[in-house]
Amino acid sequence: MSVDPPLVLISLMAESYLSELFLPRGDDPPAAEGIPGRAFAVTMLGAGQRMVAGRFAAEGRPSARLMLDDVPHHRGPISGALIPGEGLAAIECITEQRVPAGDHLLIVARVIAVAYVSDAGSPLIRFQGRYLLST
Asked: Which of 2, 37, 80, 90 could form a disulfide with 115 if both were Cys (CB 3.0 to 4.6 A apart)?
């Protein structure tokens, strides 16, 4: 994450469902009053949240609201995005730039709010198709 302005970089498969959410659509209003780009939230999941990650990774999934039905969550006050609780951290962002890069779409986003940061915990990490065990 950059410091000034606070920016994050997200890399998505260009043909994925998630990348479609970031493609510009002329009739889309801003997600929240006074926010120029598309607003969204990012949650850094903890090692114990494999179930949540799996729900969002599955093809043909229902809406996020249904996937979080039995998981503590809230809506971001600025983005309006659903934010699962009990992660390591969550931030609200707005899209600043979209960059096609090979078979990926890079999203440069400005951090507009920090929803929460946990005091402790191990991250959920997936590498080469497997979740790594936390140490």
From this structure: 90
- Alpha helices, DSSP H only, in 1-49? 17-21
What domains, with CATH codes, occur in the chain?
Answer: 7-131 (2.30.110.10)
Place of tokens 């039905």: 69
- CA-CA distance, 25 to 23, in Å (whole number)? 6
Res. 29: pLDDT tops 50? no
| Residue type at 10 in one-letter notation | I
Q: Which helix (H) or strand (E) holds 41?
A: strand 39-44
Q: The whole model's pTM is what?
A: 0.80
Is the Cα dihedral 10, 12, 14, 18 positive or negative? Answer: negative
72: preceding bond cis by omega (within 30 degrees) = no
CB neighbour list of residue 18: distance below 8 Å, 6 or more residues apart: 12
122: which 2 tokens? Answer: 């191990």
| Coil/strand/helix, residue 19 | helix
Other Cβ atoms closer than 10 A to 134: 12
